[in-house]
Design goal:
alpha/beta, Hypothetical Protein Tm841, Chain: A,domain 3
């Protein structure tokens, strides 16, 4: 039997199955509406084994409150064996399956998923399954999954959607700011001296993800409001309204700051503002960036061209 602690099925589609993981910040309600399945990451909260189940077992208020009070959170990748169990259950259904995996830029889980898919193909040679690195963390992964589902609903095959997903992440932008660098410093991702200095000077980091899905520093802002205004400015500089996609905003236990960002976005776009999806940052990523993170994601101009300086 499949370990249901690591998997939730919502898809009733018979032509193509879209699978994401909990690092996409997808809620059960959104998963139900989209018809996608969720693979859930494990984590340890103050010595207690937990599953990233969209804050059903541990509320977001409790999780980020405990972090603010010094609780230790440890994360890990999903074991290959659990992926094998999950993919075997999908193979029994026989529906072509596309798993848009959490970016290899931040986790080795996609490598374990690829190994598991290869094992399952040997046991079920007629089963079509593809594992793709989404190259997009958090709320940006959700935007990719939403569009993949729209393509499925328009009749595209799993293979066609997988081909589209090879380049589609280039057009999904994600920018975020942190209230503190202390949690990144604790994980060894930035020097502790830099975290102490930023706290002393009230400097807030502005970050993005690169084309490989890894994090990159884009600047520092003096004070929280300035850092949030810089997030809103990324929309003005990079948004592509012709793509008609939603905008996503996520927060890690700081809804008031996310409200402030949403107000700026609505003021900027006025009557042309599309749907805004509000999310809470999942524990797996939240463990590394800490409470106080606010992010925005949207469909925009080709980031590859930005990197080449051709925009």
């Amino acid at each position: 039997m499949i370990d249901k602690r690591f998997f939730r099925a919502y898809s009733n589609h018979q032509t193509c199955r879209i699978v994401v993981d909990s690092c996409s910040d997808i809620t059960c309600e959104i998963a139900q509406k989209l018809g996608v399945d969720i693979i859930e990451f494990p984590y340890v909260l103050d010595g207690k084994d937990c599953i990233d189940d969209q804050f059903e077992s541990v509320s977001s208020q409790e999780f980020y409150g405990l972090m603010r009070n010094g609780a230790k959170v440890l994360t890990s990748a999903i074991p290959t064996g659990h992926f094998v169990e999950i993919f075997n259950s999908m193979a029994e259904a026989g529906i072509p399956t596309l798993y848009l995996s959490f970016t290899a830029g931040l986790s080795r889980s996609v490598d374990d998923a690829l190994k598991a898919a290869a094992i399952v193909r040997e046991d079920h040679p007629g089963f079509e399954i593809e594992v793709l690195d989404n190259r997009l963390p958090s709320l940006s992964a959700l935007l990719l999954a939403m569009e993949a589902c729209a393509l499925r609903d328009r009749g595209l095959t799993m293979r066609e959607i997988a081909q589209w997903a090879q380049t589609a992440p280039n057009y999904v932008h994600g920018y975020f700011t942190l209230d503190s660098l202390n949690w990144l410093a604790a994980g060894g991702r930035v020097p502790k001296s830099a975290a102490k200095l930023s706290t002393l000077l009230d400097m807030k980091a502005n970050l993005a993800f690169d084309l490989d899905g890894a994090l990159t520093l884009t600047g520092m802002s003096r004070g929280r409001r300035k850092s949030l205004k810089n997030l809103a400015a990324t929309l003005e500089n990079n948004y592509d309204a012709s793509r008609h996609g939603p905008i996503a905003i996520v927060d890690a236990g700081c809804a008031d700051d996310a409200d402030y960002l949403e107000e700026m976005v609505r003021a900027e776009l006025k009557d042309t503002c599309p749907q805004i999806v509000r999310l809470i940052l999942d524990p797996t990523i939240g463990a590394h960036v800490g409470p106080g993170m606010v992010a925005i994601s949207f469909w925009g101009i080709d980031r590859a061209l930005i990197q080449l300086g051709k925009r």
